[in-house]
DNA sequence: GCTAAGATC
């Protein structure tokens, strides 16, 4: 059978099981050569009791524990109950003891004493724990029993890159500690603060901790801060690391734990003044890796072929295929379904259920990936299985049990930033070795699995970089620089980041903030800049919002800002493009996409739509989720505006300047994102950078607008500007004279055109009576 | 002729 042959084209390669790796792990050297026996005996209960008093003032159970001098034995005694150590009045439940037994079987538990020894000795600790080690749930609890934050009226914080992780881990740990979620154990994410004055352990997003740091530079509420998943190197984690590196010197009482997957632990150690490192093995099943002997020309085609081969020839087990984006995924799903139907008819294959998975999929659709694989057509027949075709959301954010086969073509969409043309865009790029490993690991969650890499072993070794570049090296840093200024970091150039961005990127950010008048010419934060940093928004959006009362439309700009900070509100399913476009026309404002979006929002908030908003959105091909989210953001921003006394005003809808005012306010924030149509008629050129661009095909704007502001630059098959609205050149000169200092423009169509406009305006001004202007 | 995913007092 052809499929059989093709499978054997994969070169077999045995992957070493995680445990073996760890035995040979040089980071673990310290485990085997020193004084671990000294703690083995532990402190006897009576010894412990003679130490300091119980921090709760209640020694009802466990032994008295001295802060930063406790032992594993003491903690375990306390955990063994019968009373809840952190809630002395409460008796521990049966469920608690059930979970406790499981917890004590986790790999981290075997090294609890070792962890305590290191934690007590050092201010900063790097902790490496692989998947399945239990680090995220257990380490914070180990810390609690030694740090005793309640005795200092402080908390232990544990950051996560994702909201869902912060929520679900907090939920789990509250159960493990037999407390109510939101009391002793809570979480804090945007739009939801699930903590109380009782809280001693708080899981939170890294962005949330960063926001807190802006108002409390020393993070005084915390006695220990744990940065989890630090290897993901999110922008917020990177900045927190730089910040905390300074905070620890100002606050000798603060302890810091950096938790990461193994790969670059030494880098963290080095960065944190050679902090000691503790490594704990994970618990996963071995995954066999296969490579293609030759490079594949068309990775999608190769991926489909591989999936079908697995279905035809491999034993029972579900398949996970990684592709790069929505359209590619939907297309692949369609093709796999077609082919598998043929296989069922012609080759007696088992049933195959195919599910797409990507972030913008409605939650109900996302949930489907967890449904059980289909049963064989008849008992004893060929196994049924499910195949999930996913973006890299399945690499870190979503874990699907039951996956035995992973197909990895080796690509993902990644953000790249080019400071020269100031364009952030998404490009399909090769993944890193670390990502490839993470993907392979998805096959070994429940039992031994196989991973088919659609590239050669040579390519894996030589062409893939070890780690993806951290986000800070791939982003426009305007909002980061503003945050750093607000964090009290004056000297950005010498701020010690783990991977300092290119000087050009920093310069661009400073320049942009200076044009936005958030920083003065000395680089100091202005009043506007301070105010802008209070909003969880990109600087351009924040400035637009803050300026909008001057244009009598802050209510409208508030709505628009919210809409621009959430995913696309227009839905356009491949099967109903025409109807979707017709529906969009109902909202179209011919002057631009911004105004069209605003029309959508107003319609959404109208009583007739609010009657059954979900249905209404469905009928009008709009994303209910996005609009709801926009509503949420709007409320949050509105509260900040009220607090900061930014006026909320509107131009009456009947006023003929209603839309014009909104368009002018757009210019106040986005004057740097303006393009002019070239005389040739089809293409546009961005001002100053002179990039040749096209209007994105989704725009409502015709080709008749000479000047437009755009919300984003997307670099896909061509250079597009997306979400565009027509503006008048005289507004540019009037609203942002510093940026539109025409003399400084490079010679060209933009310059000559703006000069004409300026001269016309000047003539008019000269003629007009002084009092009239 | 449209292409990620995660985050923000």
Automatic annotation (TrEMBL):
Residues 40-49 have a biased composition (Polar residues). Residues 16-25 have a biased composition (Basic and acidic residues). Its EC number is 3.6.4.13. Keywords: ATP-binding, Helicase, Hydrolase, mRNA processing, mRNA splicing, Nucleotide-binding, Nucleus. Residues 116-281 form the Helicase ATP-binding domain. Residues 1-85 are annotated as: Disordered. It is an enzyme of class 3 (hydrolase). One of its GO terms (molecular function) is ATP binding. InterPro entries: DEAD-box_helicase_OB_fold, DEAD/DEAH_box_helicase_dom, DHX15_DEXHc, DNA/RNA_helicase_DEAH_CS, HA2_WH, Helicase-assoc_dom, Helicase_ATP-bd, Helicase_C-like. One of its GO terms (cellular component) is post-mRNA release spliceosomal complex. Belongs to the DEAD box helicase family. DEAH subfamily. DDX15/PRP43 sub-subfamily. Pre-mRNA processing factor involved in disassembly of spliceosomes after the release of mature mRNA. This is RNA helicase.
């Amino acid at each position: 059978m052809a499929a059989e042959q093709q499978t054997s084209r994969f070169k077999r390669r045995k992957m070493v099981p995680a445990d073996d790796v760890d035995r040979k792990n040089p980071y673990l050297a310290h485990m085997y050569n020193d004084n671990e026996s000294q703690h083995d005996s532990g402190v006897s209960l009576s010894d412990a009791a003679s130490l300091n008093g119980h921090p709760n003032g209640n020694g009802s159970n466990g032994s008295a524990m001295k802060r930063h001098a406790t032992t594993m034995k003491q903690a375990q005694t306390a955990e063994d109950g019968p009373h809840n150590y952190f809630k002395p009045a409460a008796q521990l439940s049966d469920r608690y003891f059930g979970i406790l037994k499981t917890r004590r079987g986790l790999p981290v538990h075997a090294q609890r004493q070792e962890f305590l020894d290191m934690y007590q000795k050092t201010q900063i600790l790097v902790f490496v724990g692989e998947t399945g080690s239990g680090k995220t749930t257990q380490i914070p609890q180990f810390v609690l029993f030694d740090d005793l934050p309640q005795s200092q009226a402080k908390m232990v914080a544990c950051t996560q890159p994702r909201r869902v992780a912060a929520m679900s881990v907090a939920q789990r740990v509250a159960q493990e500690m037999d407390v109510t979620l939101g009391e002793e154990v809570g979480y804090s994410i945007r739009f939801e603060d699930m903590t109380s004055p009782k809280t001693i352990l708080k899981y939170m997003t890294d962005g949330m901790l960063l926001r807190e740091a802006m108002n409390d530079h020393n993070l005084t509420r915390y006695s220990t801060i744990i940065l989890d998943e630090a290897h993901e190197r999110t922008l917020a984690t990177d900045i927190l690391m730089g910040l905390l590196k300074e905070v620890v010197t100002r606050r000798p009482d603060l302890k810091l734990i950096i938790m990461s997957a193994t790969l670059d632990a030494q880098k963290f150690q080095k960065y944190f003044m050679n902090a000691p490192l503790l490594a704990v093995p994970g618990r996963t099943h071995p995954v066999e890796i296969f490579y293609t002997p030759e490079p594949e020309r068309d990775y999608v085609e190769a991926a489909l072929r591989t999936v079908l081969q697995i279905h035809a020839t491999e034993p029972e087990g579900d398949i996970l295929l990684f592709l790069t984006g929505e359209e590619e995924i939907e297309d692949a799903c369609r093709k796999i379904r077609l082919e598998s139907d043929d296989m069922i008819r012609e080759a007696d294959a088992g049933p195959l259920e195919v599910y797409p998975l990507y972030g913008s999929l409605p939650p109900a659709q996302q949930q489907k990936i967890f449904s059980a694989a289909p049963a064989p057509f008849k008992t004893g027949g060929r196994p049924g299985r499910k195949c999930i075709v996913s973006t890299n959301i399945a690499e870190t954010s979503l874990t699907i049990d039951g996956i035995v086969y992973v197909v990895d073509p080796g690509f993902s969409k990644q953000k790249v930033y080019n400071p020269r043309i100031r364009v952030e865009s998404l490009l399909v790029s090769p993944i890193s070795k670390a990502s490839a490993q993470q993907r392979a690991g998805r096959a070994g969650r429940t039992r031994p699995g196989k991973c088919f890499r659609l590239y050669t072993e040579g390519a894996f070794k030589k062409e893939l970089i070890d780690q993806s570049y951290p986000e800070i090296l791939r982003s426009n840093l305007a909002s980061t620089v503003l945050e750093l200024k607000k964090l009290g970091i004056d000297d950005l150039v010498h701020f010690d980041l783990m991977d300092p961005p290119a000087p050009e990127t920093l310069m661009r950010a400073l320049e942009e903030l200076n044009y936005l008048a958030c920083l003065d010419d000395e680089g100091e934060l202005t009043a506007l800049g301070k105010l802008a940093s209070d909003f969880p928004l990109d600087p351009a959006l924040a400035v637009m919002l803050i300026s909008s009362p001057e244009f009598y439309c802050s209510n409208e700009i508030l709505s628009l800002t919210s809409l621009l900070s959430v995913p696309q509100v227009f839905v356009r399913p491949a099967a109903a493009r025409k109807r979707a476009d017709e529906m969009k026309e109902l909202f179209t404002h011919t002057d631009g996409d911004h105004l069209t979006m605003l029309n959508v929002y107003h319609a959404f908030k109208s009583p007739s739509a609010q009657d059954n908003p979900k249905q209404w959105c469905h009928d009008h091909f709009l994303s209910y989720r996005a609009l709801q989210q926009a509503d949420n953001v709007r409320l949050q921003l509105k509260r900040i505006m009220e607090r900061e006394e930014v006026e909320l005003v509107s131009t009456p809808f009947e006023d003929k300047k209603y839309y014009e005012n909104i368009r002018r306010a757009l210019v106040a924030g986005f004057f740097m994102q303006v393009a002019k149509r070239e005389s040739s008629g089809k293409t546009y050129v961005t001002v100053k950078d002179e990039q040749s661009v096209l209007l994105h095909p989704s725009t409502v704007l015709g080709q008749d607008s000479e000047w437009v502001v755009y919300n984003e630059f997307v670099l896909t098959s061509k250079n597009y500007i997306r979400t565009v609205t027509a503006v008048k050149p005289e507004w540019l000169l009037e609203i942002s004279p510093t940026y539109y200092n025409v003399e400084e423009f490079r010679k060209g169509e933009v310059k000559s055109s703006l000069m004409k406009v300026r001269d016309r305006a000047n003539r008019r001004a000269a003629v007009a009576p002084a009092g009239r202007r």
